[in-house]
Amino acid sequence: MASPNKGLKGISRRGFLIAITGSAVAAAAGCRPSEIIAPTPYVPGTSKGAGPTPQAAPTTGATVATSVDPKYGQVTFDKLMITTPDQLYITQYDYSRTPDIDASTWSLKVDGLVDNPITIDYKAVKAFPAIEDMRALECIGNPLGGNLIGNVMWKGFDIQEILKQVKVKSNATHARFEAADGYSTSVELSWITQSGVLMAYEMDGAPLTVKHGFPLRILMPGLYGQKMPRWITRIEFIDHYYQGYWESGGWSDVASVQTNSIIAQPTDGYTTKPGASLAIEGVAWAGKRKITTVEVQIESGPWMPATLVQGPSPLAWTQWYLTWTAPAPGHYRIGVRATDETGFVQSKEGTSLFGGSDLNGVSAIHRITVQAA
Fold it and tell me: What CA–CA distance (Å, rounded) separates 288 from 181?
């Protein structure tokens, strides 16, 4: 299938950047942005995920509000949201190779350094005990403040169902993945044998769409999407490091998620009115680590705690919000930082669109400017 991004193939590590204005971001590491970050409120009792856990914090304003901003005055991130398949960003190393797979002929081979190599078909995949779990997914090429992240309700089975059948040999050190589009990569053994590795075949209560990996994709807690192929066809256990496509271009060999927070709204450059109540909102995520605090700063003032809305586990993103009122006309610089359960606090200021991350994932402070006029 032809794609306007086909020309991204083969360019250098830092050539994957296409800067776009506003809240849209870059096409980087094979990632294509969605329109918005979190459009669909979670509905309790449905396949759309577990209920939100709001954690109240003081809402600090610069002055008493005399009106409500017409566009961003109402808090909307107070209810946990999920990202639907058509709104989730796309990751692909070659957009001309989107495979259209027939589930009746597809199979997954698990071999290499194992006692019992197996090949399973789609029927066998669906026969394993099913697990549903809400998890965030982020592209390693997500720029500073970018929207190459989604919060999805996945359904699949625990990879332990496979591992206990094949029995990985003691001399295996890595797992190598192959996908139907020709993509390949590898991870250290501990990533695939850890608790919570999900072999997903549904998202948002329906089978995976073609562009999101039908019939099967792997989700490993703590990693960026670079290491978790869609359309997976083989898992080979090996005794050495294997350098995949993106890694050979200089991207992270490990690709573990960094602590990150994003201001989703208002958008950078937005104009409000002095005295109007403005809801500053966004998301934060730290892979396997729980987000414990999100703080907002206006200009060089004190960091103010935001209210948190957390998912069923740290694997889902944390939403946050704070209401603020501009006291007078002028331009105001707004920043956000997150703290995770290890005590890590975002402190680095972004020096480029990628936040000075050297393409290992962004963890710099996201800042925007709003005008009161």
Answer: 28
**Pairing verdict, β 67-68 and 276-285:** parallel
The last residue of one of the domains, among 200, 230, 248, is 248
| AA identity, residue 307 | T
Domain match, 202 and 228 both:
yes
CATH number of the domain encompassing residue 316? 2.60.40.650
In angstroms, the CA 217 to CA 68 distance is 44
pTM of the full structure: 0.85
Specify the pLDDT at position 8: 25
161: CATH = 3.90.420.10
For 2-42, strand residue ranges (E) read: 31-32, 40-41
Domain that includes residue 149, residue range: 91-248
127-173: pLDDT as tens digits: 999 999 999 999 999 999 998 999 999 999 999 999 999 999 999 99
Residue 266: asked if its preceding bond is cis (omega within 30°), the reply is: yes
CA-nearest of 325, 343, 346 to 335 is 346
